[in-house]
Amino acid sequence: MQYEVEANGRVRRVTVHRAAGTFVVDVDGRARTVSAERIDGYTLSLLIEDVRLKPDATLSDAASVPVGSGFSRTSSVSRICSYEVTVAPDGDSGQLRVSVGSRTVAVSLNGRRRWGRRAHGADAGGGPERIVAPMPGKIVRVLVAQGAAVRAHQAVVVVEAMKMENELRAGRDGIVTEVHVQDGQSVEAGGLLVVIAAAHAE
Amino acid sequence: MQYEVEANGRVRRVTVHRAAGTFVVDVDGRARTVSAERIDGYTLSLLIEDVRLKPDATLSDAASVPVGSGFSRTSSVSRICSYEVTVAPDGDSGQLRVSVGSRTVAVSLNGRRRWGRRAHGADAGGGPERIVAPMPGKIVRVLVAQGAAVRAHQAVVVVEAMKMENELRAGRDGIVTEVHVQDGQSVEAGGLLVVIAAAHAE
Amino acid sequence: MQLHKILIANRGEIAVRIMRACREMGLVSVAVFSECDRTAPHVRYADEACAIGPNAPGESYLRIDRILDAARRSGADAVHPGYGFLAENADFARAVRDAGLIFVGPTSDAIALMGSKTAARAAASAAGVPVVPGTTDPLGPEVSAAEAARLAAGVGYPLLVKAVAGGGGKGMRTVTDPSGLSDAIRAARSEAGTAFGDTAVYFERQLLRPRHIEVQLLGDEYGTVLPFVERECSIQRRHQKVVEETPSLAVTPALRRELTSAAAAVARAVGYTNAGTIEFLLDEDGRFYFLEMNTRLQVEHPITELVTGVDLVRWQLRIARGERLDLPADRLLAPSGHAIECRIYAEDPDNGFLPSPGRILRLRPPSGPGIRDDSGATEGLDVPIFYDPMISKLAVWDESRPAAVARMRRALDEYIIAGIETTLPFFSWLLVQPAFLEGRFYTTYVDDVLRHRNGQPFTDTSEQEDVAVIAAALQAEMSSTSEPDARSVRLQGWTARARFEGLRLAATRE
Amino acid sequence: MQLHKILIANRGEIAVRIMRACREMGLVSVAVFSECDRTAPHVRYADEACAIGPNAPGESYLRIDRILDAARRSGADAVHPGYGFLAENADFARAVRDAGLIFVGPTSDAIALMGSKTAARAAASAAGVPVVPGTTDPLGPEVSAAEAARLAAGVGYPLLVKAVAGGGGKGMRTVTDPSGLSDAIRAARSEAGTAFGDTAVYFERQLLRPRHIEVQLLGDEYGTVLPFVERECSIQRRHQKVVEETPSLAVTPALRRELTSAAAAVARAVGYTNAGTIEFLLDEDGRFYFLEMNTRLQVEHPITELVTGVDLVRWQLRIARGERLDLPADRLLAPSGHAIECRIYAEDPDNGFLPSPGRILRLRPPSGPGIRDDSGATEGLDVPIFYDPMISKLAVWDESRPAAVARMRRALDEYIIAGIETTLPFFSWLLVQPAFLEGRFYTTYVDDVLRHRNGQPFTDTSEQEDVAVIAAALQAEMSSTSEPDARSVRLQGWTARARFEGLRLAATRE
């Protein structure tokens, strides 16, 4: 999968390939092998290979259990750096806040700061539109039922959050294909609420 | 709502009524006003009224913001006790482990130790059968599709947990009306996997 | 005196701190709470709890009547005010005692006396302790401009116009030359009137690059007053302490004897009881001046506890129930090792330290050797917008100052707080600055640095940038539902998945 | 000697403890991990990490070749063994040094010498330190039954048959009279052969109600050996310490001088370097006997750190890089206050202390004044079934033993661990027992109590029962989807809801 990731004002082209149990992540042409594990919904443990002298001792060796082939003090040193990283939405800015130790980097994925809005915005593309909760809150009212036809900008769900009621609206004309919440239910940021298929057949 | 709660070998009849913002909980005939708030999925904060001398200073007064009606040193003392309680499933025993401070009480709800099994067991009643994950794990295989007819004891989902594959089976004949998971997905204990409607119309 | 159940008229970390002392002493604690604090840590920690009103402090934590009513209803026999809110309100102390309850603190007379900055200065002078040069009497609204100008000239410029009833930097203005005097007085009076209901001001000469050095005291009800080794609190932002340490690099043993004797003399002169702190300014020539007295427990009390082994809150309660202060005086002045505290705030250091309230999505405080975290926050809950946005007081102890600084850096690095901005990056930056490491700082050091940096972010993330970019891409990648990765069985909940599915979809559409 | 990057050949809380010291000293840490430990805290905490094999310790943490390979690949220049696993393996220490790396610990000769219980006893005797009466030489398989009986009679009954290569209670049998001797020898030999590859045994008289008292030592590479104030470790379950404290109520200042001098004498006699601990038995008459030496860091080292202010792990690293031990000897013997440690295990005290592995659903350690939690667990992850099920070492410091006990009770009460059973309720029970409070205990005190109680649960929940019943009913009630409660906006995730919906459905169907 390809991503455009913006951090500190610089856009980086990132390509992720899956290898056996690990990932190969290419950032602007520099590829590194990465082992990534979820600790919880906001936390990742990353082991990132940083080959120094010889590129033959790779993380995939390490991850797939090295056979102790006798100890020979060769010059190949391969740093496999460990990071515990939290990735959390940055309020309603649409950015992600990625914390590495006590340092935090604001990151935007695919050049969109407001991916929260984008997710239910009136953007192009024929895929179904997914209305997600922009912040933690409570469903005050679900205004549409499965199968209902909706028009662009029509309110579909009212969410109470930060002491305010927020109307979430359809980005375009379509048919409600999924309703995942009901009145009174609590949701977390990013929680999928409603899916709307484009009015024209896909 | 009425409950039968077993703790330390004793069954208690509990009735819960909702008052404004609080609950009135009657345990074997002794009613107490309780303010209950969820901290997270396993943690509750309880304020339990324990009237000592006069029963007129109630929690509902307290919760609904007392008007400071001048300070008169009367003899009415009303203890409103605070407890932070965790309620967690006790492995696959079907019991709940309720921790109050460093003390833990094993509790069964409605006389059923194995509610985990019961939830997908072949019990009576015409409501839809809800197959839930008995423990945290990963979906190895979903064996049925929405709309499929299943028979009692037919395996519907295979969950990997505690290093073992566990087959979850239908409790009775029916039609699969909801499938909430797919192969490879992780689930937590109690997560809803599949719903099966009784074969006879409801 | 009987002391069995104690109501803590406060919230947040200090309420929890006091309840911990209660629990260790076998005392029953009663929390009070406003509406938004129903699930706050201090309510969950307490043995009992009473609601006292809406969120605004003026409708709850500052309502003497409601707090006394809660004490009556719960049957408490004592009240601890913590710090802030009603802690230095003489009327509150009096009302508690009039209701037949123990007030854990000094007499209301001592609170009232020290609450007037000019009266406090006079008391210090009378006890033979130097005060910052300035005017002696309050300048009420009747004082003419000409008279004010004459008094100001006597003090000398630059000077500070300060509210007599002031505190926390409110009602305070700097004047560099006579032309700015009238405006400064008008502004200070206006602010003081709003904040304290008293427009009286006085003048104080502004010292050049002073340090803020303070002396903790305990006094019992039998005339014993004991001072503790000094605290260095010069790292401030807009008159608010943000880092404190003890001992101070600027205080020699000889100066420590002088400072602590002076502090004890002032306290004895006013018959001071319970815990209090006398603040001094220390100029570049090593001369010190009485600044004011805080008639309550101080936010930064943990560092004193760490280097002396004395539990100050426990002693507050022991003194309040009539025990004698039988600590060895010399031990309190001989610090063991070094302690530092950082006040972790929900503020964005890269955005002018604006408050950053919101939900704390992940919270994992540091631990291990030499770490003490006094926190008032919990994962999953909001930092309320109505009160001080302090999340925790992070304190470390180690055998020496360099070791303590290294340990604090380790602790800051371990602290995980996701979901809101905090001052952690600022402290990580500060604790590698040569001026900090060498102890070359003064009360406006941080403000000067901030002015000089002119918004430049504290968070230098060049090193972490690649990691962050990789993490963001992988978080999206791993949320793909076609995910064949056999090992990521630990995903919690559907929300993260849903969110990152959204990301992935956005990605594929590009 | 250059020391820049350290590989920690261990896991769990002790690996994290050592990495914290590394980070404070500016050293780079390298974790090693087995398959199930990929997401363990020590891997996430480390600067670098290397996989070393499958879950079984024999295939990973005990594999000298793989650990050395990891050291080579990562470019480490030193190896810290922690405790357990390879920490007392002389071959490992030798192999590390042969590879040109620093081994953070004593010489392999010292490890080997003290690894033989009979050789260690001989060394202690030679240094003029009394040993528990017993046989001097190892009894190999060639020793006849008659010869064994003769030697046993010389020692006297009751006696212990112990493996020469033993440790941790393995290969050990109690014999109360001559008739049981042969069976005990056979059993001990068999266990020792399996566990240590050496069937040799020896006899030791069994003392009546002895205490386990031990002395921590540090030795540098220039001949300086310094002993520390004793640790009291008599609270054991099946020869495993579960509570430790310092100082001991049973040790007078005069006895402390004797004990610590004896310990230092043994260590000096064998040229001991780095950290080690000499264990003694103290009988009811106040006589002490050398028991054995642990040639490594001890689990319970934090309590010594708390009362002396000395960071033992930091000193291990400093000694390893050739620094001189320049601590003031008298301070190490003069404890400040009192410290207690409880080893929190994933074991069910009400079910014979069976291991209780599983997922930790909620974890919130205690904090505030005087608490130190050295943990190796994280919320949301499993306690693996392959290793020691210790979750954390919870230590407290306070000014006196009663205060420290009260503080530990407070800490136990604050500790939230949901999802698995732990030994927390056992400690809460123990810390109110008169025998514990008065210090009347000995090495089999807990075992005797457990036998006497015969399965009676430690968790007296009569007081909490009503609260638990109310909580369970409300948890179900509040999960009702028709829930009109306007305030419960804090539900996290769908799982709790789904679970309790299930409960509610079950409820309505009754």
Secondary structure: number of strands of chain A: 16
Uncertain ranges of chain C? 481-510
Percent helix of chain C = 25-40%
Number of helices of chain A: 2
Q: What layout of secondary structure does this protein have?
A:
The complex is a heterotetramer, with 2 copies of chain A (202 residues) and 2 copies of chain C (510 residues).
Chain A: E1 2-7, E2 10-18, E3 23-27, E4 30-40, E5 43-51, H1 59-63, E6 78-89, E7 96-100, E8 103-109, H2 115-118, E9 129-132, E10 137-142, E11 149-150, E12 155-161, E13 164-169, E14 174-179, E15 186-187, E16 192-198
Chain C: E1 5-8, H1 12-25, E2 28-34, H2 41-45, E3 48-53, H3 64-74, E4 78-80, H4 90-98, E5 102-103, H5 108-115, H6 117-126, H7 145-155, E6 159-167, E7 170-175, H8 181-196, E8 201-205, E9 211-219, E10 225-227, E11 231-237, E12 240-246, H9 253-269, E13 274-282, E14 288-294, H10 301-308, H11 312-320, H12 329-332, E15 338-345, E16 347-348, E17 354-355, E18 358-359, E19 362-364, E20 371-375, E21 382-383, E22 390-398, H13 401-414, E23 416-418, H14 424-430, H15 434-437, H16 445-453, H17 462-478, H18 495-509
Parallel strand pairs in C: 1-2, 1-4, 2-3, 4-5
Antiparallel strand pairs in C: 6-7, 6-8, 9-10, 9-11, 9-13, 11-12, 12-15, 13-14, 15-22, 16-17, 18-21, 19-23, 20-22
Structure report:
The complex is a heterotetramer, with 2 copies of chain A (202 residues) and 2 copies of chain C (510 residues). Chain A has 202 residues and is mostly beta strands. In chain A, 4% of the residues lie in helices and 51% in strands. Mean pLDDT of chain A is 75; it is low at 52-75 and 112-125. Residues 481-510 of chain C have low confidence and may be disordered. In chain C, helix 17 crosses helix 18 (495-509). Chain C is built from 18 helices and 23 strands. Chain C is of the alpha+beta class and 510 residues long. Chain C is globular and about 75 Å long. In chain C, strands 9, 10, 11, 12, 13, 14, 15, 20 and 22 form a 9-stranded antiparallel beta sheet that branches. Chain C has a 5-stranded parallel beta sheet with strand order 3-2-1-4-5. Chain C has a 3-stranded antiparallel beta sheet with strand order 7-6-8. Chains in contact: A-C, A-D, B-C, B-D, C-D. Chain A binds chain D through residues 35, 37, 39-40, 45, 47, 52, 57, 62-66, 68-74, 76-82, 84, 136-138, 160, 182, 184-186, 188, and chain D through 31, 35, 38-39, 43-54, 63, 65-66, 68-70, 72-75, 95, 99-100, 378-381, 481-484, 488-493.
